[in-house]
Every structure is written in C-alpha cells, then in structure tokens.
Specification:
This protein is α/β, with parallel strands linked by helices. Helices cover about 55% and strands about 15% of the residues. It folds into two domains: about 60 residues; about 110 residues, no CATH class.
C-alpha cells in the first residue's frame, strides 16, 4: 500500500506557498483597511495585522523547509509501486534530525525497513541517526537496510530481494509503520 505519494514534496511546497501568500494578503488588507478607515497607522487593525504575522511566518518557514528538496524519480516510483503484499511504500521521505533533514527517495516497510536514496551523504547521516533511533524503539539492526540506488537495474535487483509475502502476524508491519510515521516531516 502506498502511504506517501511521489509528489509529496511538491504538493507541500505549493500548499505552504499558497497559505503564505493568503496570510500576506490578509495582513495587508487588515493593515491598509485600518489605516484608511482611521487615518492613522496606530490603530487596532495594526495590532491585528501584527498578530497575523505569526501565521505568515509559520507557513513561510514550512515552505522554506521543503524548498531545497525535490520529489523522487517517477520511473523508479512506478517500479516500487508495483510491489504487492504486506508492504508500506513511502516516496520522497523527509526525516528531521538535530543536524539536518534526511531525504530518502523511497522507504519500503515490510518486516524490515529499506531506506533508499541516491545520495551517500544522506545514507551516512541516516545510519548514524536512524540506527540509534530505531534500536531504541525495539527494531533489530538486521531489520534496517540502507541502500544507495544509482540506476534502474540496481533498484530492480533490490525489489526482487524484498520479501513482501503476506504475514500471519501483521502487528510487526503495523508497528514498523507507526514508528516510521512518527519520524516523518
């Protein structure tokens, strides 16, 4: 089952940019409207406009957090989406850490976690951060896989090795999904 679409990042960017613009327009309307009605800048509308900058700042910050990232490759996305069985698929995954936001092109969750990226930098940081984080949540080190995929052939080989057979105990899969979703941005 696909839990996060491949256009997640672009959708979030558009959403927060729209909201930022709406907040900015609302602030300007309230401020200028108060100024026109009263004839002075120091009025109640100015106070409302100042408080409204909090919503503007929040949405602008969220937009800027997503801005450096791009959605995953659609060709690889189609290959991964073809997986059947007890599997949860996340595309364009962002996981915030204290140092940096980790980006994975794809994360596949079965009995195991498969973190797939095209960047060595993110995989190195991910190993340091996620291994400690997942072990503290009761996930064995053997159940964590960090893979760098540079071409379609490597991805096809990885997908063939993933065991997606229906589980008799779906609690492990649901637990893994819950753990991952608790870390997502």
């Amino acid at each position: 089952m696909i839990k996060q679409d491949g256009n997640y990042i672009n959708t979030k960017k558009q959403f927060f940019l729209r909201r930022t613009i709406i907040w900015l327009v609302a602030i300007l309307v309230v401020f200028i409207g108060g100024w026109i009605v009263t004839g002075v800048r120091g009025n109640v509308a100015t106070i409302f406009a100042a408080v409204m900058t909090l919503g503007f700042a929040q949405n602008l910050t969220r937009y800027l957090a997503f801005k450096p990232f791009k959605d995953c490759d659609t060709e690889n996305l189609k290959l991964i989406d073809a997986l059947k069985g007890d599997v949860a698929i996340y595309h364009s995954v962002l996981i915030p850490t204290e140092k940096k936001v980790l980006y994975f092109d794809h994360v596949i969750v079965t009995k195991q976690f498969y973190f797939i990226s095209s960047s060595d930098e993110y995989l190195k940081l991910a190993r340091e951060y996620l291994i400690n984080r997942l072990i503290s949540k009761g996930i064995n080190l053997e159940n964590m896989n960090f893979k760098k995929i540079e071409n379609k052939g490597e991805l096809e080989k990885l997908l063939k090795s993933i065991d997606c057979t229906p589980e008799t105990n779906k609690e492990a899969l649901l637990n893994n999904i819950t753990i991952l979703e608790g870390m997502l941005m």
